[in-house]
């Protein structure tokens, strides 16, 4: 039976917006026409980019089309890497996974003197065409024509896996988790603050997700598409990923390719990372779904949720497939005060497991057993981390609940838990994203062949020992 799961949902842009440019030749012609309409004697074309755009491709096309133009690349204005890392040290930390959420502004990533000189050059420019290109380009000059080349974070993660470095860094070969950490805690925060301040004045949105196939729409069309999404039911583009514990249910039911050993994850609605497809002129253009939250937080979230969470989408939906796979990692999520004081995140991950399907032996590990000795359990966790020949005796300390199709397990933060094998879980949770403290991973390696990160130093202080058998039941 063919799958009915839509892997490419889209939102139509209202029909009064129909302009779409689908190649560098087409979009550059459109920009030339717009600059003539503006009528500036010494035009400045500002192309702002999100970290992760393929600069070599876009800049190469620009130089071929506008060989007479002066081009200022913002990357040349950035602080040198040693100076920047010293500035970011407190937020970056030495941990492989966790940093501290940054409140840096994008201006702080640049050399003050170089930025001042670039601004002076732009303000006094007397040539035929000046192009300001790169991350934070609008900090140099607002542009007579302003383009924003946006990028969804899931695509950026794929590029990190393929060897792309962080913005302006020489760390392409660095561990993926560390590159992701630098973006999650620092770069994306600063880049989003910059984007948030400029979304209203973008003349053109540029989509470069697919190599060599740029697409461009007007700023008005993009904003109309975001507004349309905010006032109707819509889905973002799901992404699927293998996992050390991954199963086979999604491969069949979602019609997924056979080039992966399994599929453990499907992030079906995580607006901070998923894409939104906007349909225009018979095509789709791809942008971060977070733009809808930024542009229309009250319409999307309602007054009460917006008042509590601001411009964040505080709930997520994802699939966890362990059918013909293995147990998830044994884990706990932080308490609110812990996540605030340790990582700078203002809310935590309460969650639930809804069982879409199960097979024989499905179960959920949830809550400590009544009468458990905390010191003994902690000792066993530490022994399992230090000695591969001493696995953690999970069932000695933790409740194991049988699971069947349509069961729904509530998992407040601070409750130890994990889904066992042979379950297809719809996880419905709050969305602080990566703050899961693994405490035992069944002695296995990650897909990269390395031990998966375990964070007992964070997990143990968050275990609520009164979440025992009776409480959990």
How would you describe this structure to a colleague?
The protein has helices spanning about 25-40, 55-65, 80-90, 110-125, 155-160, 175-200, 220-230, 250-255, 290-295, 295-300, 305-310, 335-345, 375-385, 395, 455-460, 470; strands at about 10, 45-50, 70-75, 130-135, 145-150, 205, 215-220, 240, 265-270, 275-280, 285-290, 315-320, 330, 350-360, 365-370, 400, 410, 415-420, 425-430, 435-440. It is built from 16 helices and 20 strands. The chain is of the alpha/beta class and about 475 residues long. About 45% of the residues are buried. The mean pLDDT is about 95. The two termini are about 40 Å apart. The chain has a six-stranded mixed β-sheet with strand order 3-4-2-5-6-7. It has a six-stranded antiparallel β-sheet with strand order 8-9-12-19-14-17, with no helix packed on it.
List the helices and strands and how they pair.
Elements: E1 11-12, H1 24-38, E2 44-49, H2 55-65, E3 70-73, H3 81-92, H4 112-123, E4 130-134, E5 145-150, H5 153-161, H6 176-198, E6 204-207, E7 215-218, H7 219-230, E8 239-241, H8 249-253, E9 265-269, E10 275-280, E11 283-288, H9 290-295, H10 297-301, H11 303-309, E12 315-321, E13 330-332, H12 336-343, E14 351-358, E15 363-368, H13 374-386, H14 394-397, E16 398-402, E17 408-411, E18 417-419, E19 423-430, E20 437-440, H15 456-462, H16 469-472
Parallel strand pairs: 1-10, 2-4, 2-5, 3-4, 5-6
Antiparallel strand pairs: 6-7, 8-9, 9-12, 10-11, 12-19, 13-20, 14-17, 14-19, 15-16, 15-18
